[in-house]
Design brief:
The chain contains 14 helices and 31 strands. A hairpin with a 5-residue loop joins strand 23 and strand 24. It is globular. By secondary structure, it is α+β, with helices and mostly antiparallel strands.
Length: 792
C-alpha cells in the first residue's frame, strides 16, 4: 500500500486591505479606514494568539465509491503525477501525488473497485477497464457526437479541455476558449455576417499581418541561434494564450479570484492600466497591438455575466488617462448589459460560421498543429518549457534552477496535452427551414438534438403542439378527497398518473404517498414489472420523518435524493437508496410557514423551497446550507397580505428558478438576479388565473424556445418564451386554441415535461383527466402551417 506521513497544513492568516467604492462613488474616509484597519489588526493578533490546535486545519474530503462519477489523469507542474476526481454533483477534487507511481497505484485500485455510478461502469464485468483505451473510446464518441450535430460547440470545447488535462481546479491549466467575435466597435452586430468573426484557422499571434511578420522573424532568429547550440529551442511567442495571471485578470472582480489576484500581486490590485477593463481593448491587444499578448478567452465569457461587473465595489484605481476602472467596458452592441454580451458571445460560438470552422482552432490548440513542422508553419510555437515532456523537474539537481523552472511553468502557461496527430473532422452543418428555404426532411433528425424545448425541429422559431393522447388517472387515488392529478410520467408510450398527494420516481417504477397522520412517506408499486406486478401495493413505509404532516415532497431526477417539506416549516433532505431513506440534514428558515412546493437540481446542487407566506429560499445541496432568499415581491406590494407560493421549478441546464405566486411567474438566475417576469397585461385573474407552473431546460443563450409553462384554473395551458432584453415573458402557444373541444375543463393541477429534448408535455387536472401533447414535425404539418413556418 501507499506509505507516508499525514502533514498538518497551517491555516492561512493572510489579510488584504483593499479600498471599497462607496455607492455614491466617493471613497471611504481614510481616517475611518485607518481606524478600521487597527481594529482588524487587533482581531488578527487575538486569532494568532490562540492555541496551536486552531492554527492547523485538516484538508480532508471523504468520497464514497458510489458517489464517484469520474476520475481523470492530470499533470501538475507539467509532471504526470495528479488525478482529478468528480462526484455525482460534478464537484472536482484535484490531488497531486509525490510521483507517477503513486498516482497509477491509486488509479488502478479505483478501476478495480465497484464504481456503480461512474463513467467506467459498464455493467457486470470480470475485468476492470483499461484507462487509456476507455478514454480514447470516450474521446472518439464525443468527437462523433459533435460532428453529427448532437453536441453544442461549448460542450465540445469543454470536453476537449478536460481530455487535454485542463481543469477549473488548476489556474495554470484553466480551460481555454477562443475569441470568436472580431467586431467590438459597431452599434449593432449581425451574426450572419462572416466578417464579424475572428479567423479560427490562425492563432491569435498570426491575426495581425504586421505583428505576425515580427513573430516569424523572431522565430527564424532564435532558430539560427539554437542550431549553433547557443540558445534553447526557438519559439514564436514568449508569452502564452493561457496562464494563471490571465485567468485572475479576467476574474478579479469575483471572489475567490479577487483574493488570489491580490496574493499574486503582493497584497494589492495590479496597476489600473493593466487590469482587464475593456473587452474591445483586450481584443485589440491580443490580436493586433501588443507583441506580449496572445491570450485567448476562458469559459466564463460564454455563460457568466457576473465576472464583468464589479459587484463587490472594489476600488480598482484610476488609469493614466483619468478614467476610473470599475465595471468592464462592453462593446456598443451589448448596450451596456453584461448578460446581453454573454448571450451574443455564446450565440456567436454556436453560430453556423463558427461551427464550420471550429475544427481549425481545435487543430491549433489540441491537435496536429500544436507541435512540430505544422506548428511552425502556422506560427503556433511557444517557449519549450510550456510543453509536457520537455523538462524533467526531478532530474534537475540545482535547487535554484529547479525553482526557476517551476516558477516559469506556473506563471507563463502550460500547453494542453495533444489529443490528435491528424486534422480534426469538420462539423456537419444543416440549414434551418426559414425564409422560404428548401427543407431536407431526411436530415431533420440531425437537427433534433440542439433544437430548443417545444420548438419545431428544423424551424426553431416556431412552436406547434398537437394532442396525441388523453386518459384518466388511476394510480394512487385511494383515500384521496378528490380526483386531482399529483404527478405523471410516460412509460412504454402509456400515460401514468398518480393522485395529488403522490409523486412518481420513474427510475424505480414506484410512487410515494405523503400527508398522512404518520408524518412520513410510503412507497408503492407505480409501474408494473415482472417482479412487482400489483399496482398500488405497498413497498415500504417510513414513519415519523417529520414532527408534523408532510405537505410537499420532491425527488431528484435520478431518484437518489428526496426533499420533504412540513406543516411546521421545516425542510429535510434524504438520501434514498436500496429502499432506505437516510436523513442528511434538516433545513430551517421559513419561520413557521407551511412548505407548499419544492424542487431539486443535482446538476447545480440546488434546492428551492416555497411557503404559504410567500417566501422562496434557495439551499445548497452540496453543503446542505442556506444560500439566499429570492425577492420576487415588487416594492408596491410590500404592504399587501403575503400570497402563497404555488410552484417553484428549476431549469436543469441553466440553474434558473421559476416562481409562481398568485398568477404571476417570475424567473431568477442561480445567483438571484431577475431574468424575466410577466408583463402586467399577461397576468390572468379569476377563472383564468394560473394554478401551477413548470420550467423547461431551455438554454439561456437561445432567442427561441419555451422557458416556462403554466396551467390555469379554466383548464388552459400556456407556453411562454422570453425576451431577455426586455426581461419579459412572451406567451407563445395555448392548448385551448389547438382543439375544437377543450380537453381539460377543470383546474390544471400537474405539469410534467418528457423527452430527451423536451418535446412532450403531460397535463393533469382536478377531475383526474390527463393528456399528452407533442411537438409537431415539419413533415406532419398542414399545408398552411408549413407555409407559415417556412416563410417566417
Amino acid at each position: 500500500g501507499l506509505k507516508g506521513n499525514i502533514n498538518r497544513v497551517e491555516r492561512a492568516t493572510s489579510t488584504f486591505h483593499v479600498n471599497i467604492r462607496s455607492q455614491t462613488g466617493i471613497d471611504i474616509d481614510p481616517v475611518a479606514r485607518s481606524e478600521q484597519n487597527d481594529i482588524e489588526k487587533k482581531k488578527t493578533q487575538v486569532k494568532n494568539s490562540t492555541s496551536d490546535a486552531s492554527k492547523y486545519q485538516h484538508r480532508c474530503k471523504r468520497l464514497a465509491h458510489g458517489d464517484l462519477y469520474a476520475v481523470y489523469r492530470r499533470r501538475y507542474q507539467l509532471q504526470p503525477i495528479a488525478l482529478e476526481f468528480y462526484d455525482d454533483h460534478n464537484n472536482g477534487t484535484f490531488i497531486a501525488f509525490s510521483n507517477q507511481d503513486e498516482r497509477e497505484e491509486i488509479l488502478s485500485i479505483l478501476l478495480h473497485s465497484d464504481l456503480p455510478n461512474s463513467i467506467f461502469n459498464s455493467g457486470p464485468s470480470v475485468t476492470s477497464p483499461n484507462y487509456d483505451k476507455f478514454m480514447k473510446s470516450l474521446r472518439s464518441k464525443i468527437a462523433n457526437q459533435w460532428v453529427q450535430g448532437k453536441m453544442t460547440n461549448f460542450d465540445f470545447i469543454m470536453h476537449l479541455n478536460s481530455f487535454a488535462g485542463r481543469s477549473y481546479n488548476d489556474l495554470t491549466q484553466y480551460p481555454v476558449f477562443p475569441w470568436v467575435i472580431a467586431d467590438y466597435e459597431s452599434d449593432e452586430i449581425d451574426l450572419k455576417n462572416p466578417n464579424v468573426y475572428r479567423d479560427l484557422s490562425k492563432p491569435m499571434g498570426a491575426l495581425g499581418l504586421a505583428r505576425a511578420e515580427q513573430f516569424k522573424e523572431r522565430y527564424e532568429a532564435l532558430d539560427s541561434n539554437y542550431a549553433s547550440g547557443d540558445e534553447p529551442p526557438a519559439f514564436h511567442y514568449g508569452t502564452h494564450y493561457s496562464c494563471a495571471a490571465y485567468v485572475l485578470n479576467y476574474l478579479l472582480r469575483l471572489e475567490p479570484f479577487s483574493r488570489l489576484a491580490l496574493s499574486l500581486q503582493g497584497g494589492k490590485f495590479d496597476l489600473a492600466d493593466r487590469i482587464f477593463h475593456n473587452i474591445g481593448a483586450s481584443w485589440k491587444s491580443a490580436s493586433r497591438d501588443n507583441l506580449q499578448d496572445v491570450r485567448e478567452l476562458i469559459p466564463e465569457f460564454f455563460y457568466l455575466p457576473e465576472f464583468l461587473e464589479n459587484g463587490n465595489s472594489f476600488d480598482l484605481g484610476v488609469k493614466q488617462d483619468g478614467c476610473t476602472v470599475h465595471h468592464v467596458t462592453l462593446p456598443p452592441w451589448a448596450k451596456g448589459d453584461p448578460r446581453r454580451f454573454v448571450r451574443i458571445n455564446r450565440q456567436a460560438l454556436e453560430s453556423e460560421h463558427v461551427s464550420r470552422n471550429l475544427h481549425k482552432w481545435v487543430d491549433l490548440i489540441f491537435g496536429y498543429k500544436q507541435r512540430g513542422r505544422e506548428a511552425i508553419s502556422a506560427l503556433n510555437t511557444f517557449v519549450h518549457v510550456t510543453y509536457a515532456g520537455t523538462v524533467d523537474i526531478n532530474a534537475i539537481e540545482d535547487p535554484i534552477q529547479r525553482e526557476s523552472i517551476i516558477a516559469q511553468i506556473q506563471n507563463f502557461g502550460q500547453t494542453p496535452t495533444r489529443l490528435e496527430r491528424r486534422p480534426f473532422p469538420a462539423r456537419n452543418i444543416l440549414p434551418q427551414a426559414k425564409d422560404g428555404s428548401i427543407v431536407d426532411y431526411n436530415s431533420l433528425a440531425l437537427l433534433e438534438h440542439l433544437t430548443p424545448p417545444f420548438c419545431v425541429v428544423g424551424a426553431p422559431h416556431a412552436v406547434r403542439l398537437r394532442l396525441t393522447m388523453n386518459d384518466f388517472c388511476k394510480v394512487g387515488m385511494i383515500g384521496q378527497s378528490d380526483a386531482s392529478v399529483g404527478d405523471m410520467c410516460l412509460s412504454k408510450g402509456q400515460l401514468i398518473g398518480v393522485g395529488k398527494t403522490c409523486g412518481l420516481i420513474p427510475s424505480t417504477k414506484k410512487y410515494y404517498r405523503f400527508g398522512g397522520s404518520n408524518n412520513g412517506i410510503s412507497f408503492h408499486v407505480g409501474i408494473p414489472t415482472v417482479k412487482n406486478w400489483e399496482v398500488n401495493r405497498v413497498h415500504t413505509i417510513h414513519d415519523d420523518m417529520h414532527r408534523a404532516p408532510i405537505t410537499s415532497v420532491k425527488p431528484s431526477r435520478d431518484g437518489q435524493w428526496l426533499v420533504t417539506g412540513c406543516l411546521d416549516s421545516t425542510v429535510r433532505v434524504w438520501k434514498y437508496e436500496n429502499d432506505h431513506v437516510d436523513l442528511q440534514a434538516s433545513l430551517c428558515g421559513h419561520e413557521g410557514a407551511k412548505i407548499t412546493c419544492i424542487d431539486i437540481c443535482t446538476t447545480f446542487g440546488t434546492i428551492i423551497t416555497g411557503a404559504d407566506d410567500g417566501t422562496v429560499l434557495m439551499w445548497d445541496l452540496r453543503t446542505l446550507s442556506f444560500l439566499r432568499e429570492l425577492d420576487h415581491i415588487p416594492q408596491t406590494d410590500r404592504r399587501a397580505m403575503p400570497k402563497s407560493v404555488k410552484s417553484v421549478s428549476l431549469n436543469d441546464k441553466t440553474g434558473d428558478v421559476l416562481i409562481l405566486v398568485d398568477s404571476k411567474v417570475t424567473i431568477f438566475d442561480i445567483n438571484g438576479n431577475l431574468v424575466a417576469t410577466m408583463n402586467p397585461r399577461d397576468i390572468l385573474a379569476g377563472n383564468n388565473r394560473a394554478s401551477c407552473a413548470i420550467s423547461t431546460d431551455c438554454p439561456e443563450w437561445t432567442d427561441h424556445g419555451i422557458v416556462a409553462i403554466t396551467g390555469h384554473v379554466d383548464g388552459n395551458v400556456i407556453l411562454w418564451g422570453i425576451d431577455r432584453d426586455e426581461i419579459e415573458l412572451i406567451p407563445r402557444f395555448q392548448t385551448r386554441s389547438e382543439v375544437q373541444t377543450q380537453i381539460h375543463m377543470s383546474p390544471i393541477t400537474c405539469l410534467r415535461i418528457e423527452g430527451k429534448r423536451q418535446n412532450a408535455l403531460l397535463c393533469g387536472d382536478k377531475s383526474g383527466k390527463t393528456s399528452l401533447w407533442k411537438t409537431i414535425h415539419l413533415d406532419a404539418m398542414s399545408q398552411d402551417d408549413h407555409a407559415k413556418v417556412v416563410m417566417y
